[in-house]
Each structure stands twice: as C-alpha cells, then as structure tokens.
Description:
- It is a single chain.
- 46% of the residues lie in helices and 14% in strands.
- The protein contains 18 helices and 14 strands.
- The strands form 2 sheets. It has an 8-stranded mixed beta sheet with strand order 3-2-1-4-5-6-7-8, with helices on both faces. It has a 6-stranded parallel beta sheet with strand order 11-10-9-12-13-14.
- Helix 1 (10-21) crosses helix 3 (51-60), helix 4 (70-76) crosses helix 5 (97-110) and helix 12 (285-309) crosses helix 13 (335-345).
- The mean pLDDT is 97.
- Uridine-5'-diphosphate-glucuronic acid binds next to helix 9.
Amino acid sequence: MNITVMGTGYVGLVTGATLSHAGHNVTCLDIIKSKIDELNKGKSPIFEPGLEELIKSGIKNKTLSGSIDTENCIRESDVTFICVGTPSNKNGSIDLSYIKSASSSIGRALRAKEGEHTVIVKSTVVPLTTEETVLPILLKKCGWKRERLGIGMNPEFLREGCAVEDAQKPDRIVIGFADEVAKKVMNELYKKHQCPKLECSPRTAEFIKYSSNSFLATKISFVNEMANMCNAWGIDFKEVADGMGLDSRISPLFLRAGAGFGGSCFPKDVKALAAASKSSKIESKMLDASLEVNESQPLIVVEMARERLGVLKGKKITVLGLAFKPDTDDIRESRSEVVIKKLIEEGAVVTGHDPEAMTNFKEIIDIKMANNSKEALDGADCLILMTEWKEYIDLDYKLIKQRMNGNVVIDGRRAFDYRRMEKEEFDYKAIGLG
Ligand code: UGA
C-alpha cells in the first residue's frame, strides 16, 4: 500500500518506519524541512533504540522517504495517517489546531485525486474528534461524496524507549472505523499481526486510548500514595508491590513507586480527559486526584533531602537522571524539572547528569552538567536519583562514597540496593522504603 504519514514526531516516525519495514511504501510528511532532510539521509531526528536502523534500511530499499510536499504525497497514496501533535491548552484541555490544519491540507490535496482515499487518525484525540472535527473538515475541503472517503481511528500504544518493539509486536490493535472502506484498509494493513484486534467505532477507539493512559497514570499515583504510607510505617513498598502483583487481576506491571509520572503522554492526556469530561458536565474525581498526587510526589524528594541536610541553601546537590524515564532523551514533564526548580529556589547548588538528555534539559533550566556520572558525584553533599538509568544503578557504591563530600542519598525511584547502601553507611532514603 502507498501510505503517507503526516507528522514526524515519535508516533509518526515509528509508524512510518515500521510500516515501511513491513513492505509498504511510506512517505513521512512534515512542515519542518530540516527534519525531513535528516530523515532522507537515513538519520533519526529522535533518540529511540532501533529506530535509526529501520529508517536507514527503509531509505536504502526506497520503501521510506521524507517530504514536505503535502499535495503530491497525498495524491500519490492510498492511505494517510494523521500523527500530528495534540498539545494542551493553558487550562489542560486538548489543543486540536494541528489536527484541524492537517485535516484541511489533506482535504485540499484530495481535490485533485481520483478514486478512494482513507484517512486514519493515530494522534491521541479526545472522543468524537475524528467524527466531529476531522471528517467534516476533510469533506468540506475535498468536496468529495462521503462514500469515496474512508475514515478511521487507530490509536498507538507504544512506549518511548521501546517504541519500535511495541509498534512491531503490539498487545492489541484497535481498529476504529466510521465506514467499510476504512475497516477494510486497516484490516489489510495489519493482516500479518497475530495479536488481538478490536473493531469498534472511532469514538470508542479514541476513548480506549485515553482510558488506558489514564488508568496506568492512576495506577502509578495510587501506588505512590501507598508508598508514601510505607515511608511512615516502616514498610518496604517493593515487597508490598510483589505481593499485590501476584494477583493476576492487579498484574505486577506499573507498580513501581517513585517521584511520579512524566513524559509527553500521561500528564497531558489525563489533563485533557479531565477537561473534556468537565466540559460534558461529568465529574472526574479520580483523574483530578491522580494529577494532584503526581504534582506533590517530586516535592517529597526535596523534603527528604531537606530533612537530612538541615538546610538546602548552599548545599551541593547532584541530580542523576533528567529524562522522564530511562532510555530516552525526552525531558517533557520530567519530574527532575520540578525537583531541580525547587532546589534552585531554595538556594541549593545543583549539578545534573543524564546519559542522553542533558542537551534537551539545558534548554529549560541552565544548570551545571557533569561530563559523566562519576564526575557528577565529586564533592556532592547529597545525591538524588531521579531516573533509573542502568549506568546509575550499576555505580560502585564505594566509589560514590569516595567522590561525594557527604553521605546523603535520596532515591526518587527506589532503584538503588538499600542493603548495600546501608552497608556503605550512606544516609539513604527512598520513596516507598520506610
Ligand atoms: C505511555 C504508555 O505507557 C504507552 O502505552 C502510550 O502509548 C504512551 O504513553 C503514549 O500515549 O504515547 P511513555 O510515556 O512512553 O508511554 O512511558 P511509560 O513507560 O508509560 O512511563 C511513563 C511515566 O510513568 C514515566 O515517567 C515512568 O517513570 C513512570 N512510571 C511508569 C512509574 O513511575 N512507575 C511505573 O511503574 C511505571
């Protein structure tokens, strides 16, 4: 199939690269020319394990290319995936402006096309967007009869850091279709996938995505609240999570307590769903509580440091981990940002380190960055772990002790081995370890 993917962010790039790897002819469209130039040279504009290899092979085999020529690409293809961003408005509600402009340009490009065309929304959009925003704009701009147009909603469930694997071997594929044209196209596109496929309406597909992300975010906020109780009652939440996870109804996944959830999805999506629900006059107490816990959770890390250091003013504090989670350079909504802002506000002298995210982080807060994780420890009064990169967990505790000035270690991800920490006589405190 000839496919156009509109928007070369995380979802667009991974979708384009994996579909081209599966044998389709894919053109990735974007308005930013430099991104497209990189892509055509076989380079990935983002850090994501395995993605650059897929892009390189697609470019080499001529099944993948980048373009800024919307009209031509869409006219030459059978299917267009909308993968543009859906950021938040100031009040947390979803900003659909990129979705609207993408729909307009697709509609305009279709005017000169013969036959059928299917448009599939992959961007995360609140329920009813595909049917009540995308479809009317497309029809108005292209002037086609409804029968020629296929309209689908096919949410993406990939995680950053393992996006390629998630896209190639998904747990499930949700095929939201508004007509038989779109249903047929999506079934054809995914025919080789063995996983369960759920056929439903576009609004159901949209809501499956939001409910899934909101459930996982709420699960994290819930375990974080439980972990905070463990801190007060001398209980190790890791053991509690092991006990809970053995119940197949709960599952052992997403039970890691810590400084809260970040990234470009959970915070934004929970806020957008809460706002959408309120605008439909439905209360969203669970979502609001989940966001509230997530706001206060990183500040607990700062309080733990303050309790041990007495005052934060003038103290040299090293923060290991700036990305919102390991194996990514993405710093969006990173809990480290909240912690570092608070530490600076309190007058601490902060040094940061991250294996991949330092350049991105410097754009939001200009702190001193260490050349490597060992150098980051030099002379620190306190070490705060915020992202559980393997290279941090594997650090030699004796070496940490030698290089630091003090012995306070605050673990915002409960990732260090607390027994070894105690053996080395660190003043160690972790979220969820009482
Ligand atoms: C999330 C979902 O997991 C994907 O299924 C979804 O497709 C994606 O959002 C999206 O909507 O595009 P992602 O944001 O890449 O994926 O990252 P996760 O691995 O889910 O982690 C999100 C945050 O939760 C991170 O800050 C992580 O540290 C935190 N987390 C995760 C915990 O604090 N505890 C856990 O047990 C798991």
